[in-house]
Amino acid sequence: xxxxxxxxLDECVKMFPLDQVVHGDNRAMESIVRGVCGPFDLAxxxxxxxxxxxxxxxxxxxxxxxxxxxxxHAMKIGGTPxxxxxxxxxxxxxxQTESDVGFCPEAGTPMLFLGQFCFIDSKDLVPELxxxxxxxxxxxxxxxxxxxxxxxxxxxxxxxxxxxxxPGASPFLNCFGHLCRITEPETxxxxxxxxxxxxxxxxxxxxxxxxxxKETLICQLHSTGPSxxxxxxxxxxxxxxxxxxxQDFDMVSGGAVYxxxxxxxxxxxxxxxx
Length: 274
Known about the structure:
This protein is α+β, with helices and mostly antiparallel strands. The protein has 4 helices and 10 strands.
């Protein structure tokens, strides 16, 4: 079994030659600032990297298609998780201190399904993992509470149905990822303006607050949204988006969830925003 949705980087670049998409109006650079959402973003950033002859670490970056994937194990945001039907839904623990009262959900409230990653074709980029598919749950949409991780192997047959998801437990924009293996720009060259602002497996670890110690990045789920006035803002939307049909996935002003492995093998997740 392989990851079901992939994009060839060279074919993507051919669709949007840099000398044809940059006309002095800063459209391409605006796309870079937003990060990677659709094919246009990836093509432009890759060509800038090649012009500068940069070669950082390998990473699997995701571009997004709106909607629910046919293949349930695909990387996704929101929607219905790749999860056995008989497993109890994770619940919030409730306030742990007096200062938490009023700021976090009550104990027993269903956690929110944020998204999932599939590592079936990306295991050469990351440390040894517990299984094939990682699910990420959060307590609320402020991302200030606990983050829970669940791991499942491929081959699950009896999966949770959409109507089995607790009401309100999957509130995020539903989209899924098309994977593309890339060479990242050199660390720090585009800090805040390139693949750092992308959802990805492996590659460089760039926290929005502070510097990493000795942990290794497993995956990064980043806020994403299409650039305006550019073609293919989403994989399945050739036409530019407008203010009338704009949708995005924003975690508290461009935040991201980082899943990392500590030197002792402990896997943890944390949310950061600027």
